[in-house]
């Protein structure tokens, strides 16, 4: 017998899918934080943008875990365009890494030096070194997938999990 609220309920949706989505988002953010702070990888502007869908997914997953019935289902439906955005951001970034198109972000382009004194140029420098968006980071030696490509594959897998949960919830709700 399943505990109330954790199995398939009246709305066909348990708390499990929401918890899984929140954990999936936290895992993606955790790997990014580990690569940045643990391995010393410097993220580019597109890398920082790619983290936003995962943050939103964590929030939606927590709301789905706390909601009941159709509210949980609605949070899963809201997660679909979020993961599509994650896949899209990854595809754009992979294209930039491969040289297929230029980065849409101005911070990924080469700096423009303006005339002025040396002190003025030093004062205009960013506090944190910038990383060009076309320089991929590889986490696993010998694997020709950049972190960006792995992020896109992971986002597509999470999207499939969401679709499975929505389909399963729809089928069990008909019984």
Descriptive key words:
DiS_bond_form_DsbB/BdbC; 175 residues; membrane; Bromodomain-like; DsbB-like_sf; single chain; mainly alpha; 6 helices; 62% helix
CATH superfamily placement: DsbB-like
Instruction: Please indicate the percent range of residues in DSSP E strands (runs of 2 or more).
Output: under 5%
Q: Rough shape?
A: elongated
Mean pLDDT metric: 81
What is the CATH fold-level name?
Answer: Bromodomain-like
Are there runs of 5+ residues with pLDDT below 50, and where? 1-12
CATH architecture: Up-down Bundle
Helix proportion of residues, in percent?
Answer: 55-70%
Q: Given this structure, which CATH class is correct?
A: Mainly Alpha
Query: What class do helices, strands and sheet pairing give?
Result: mainly alpha
Radius of gyration: 20 Å
Give the N-terminus to C-terminus distance in angstroms: 18 Å
How many β-strand runs? 0
**H and E order:** HHHHHH
Our count of domains comes out at 1
User: Count of DSSP helices?
Assistant: 6
The biggest beta sheet, please?
none
Subcellular location: Membrane
Protein name: Disulfide bond formation protein B
Membrane topology: Multi-pass membrane protein
Transmembrane segments: 51-67, 74-96, 152-169
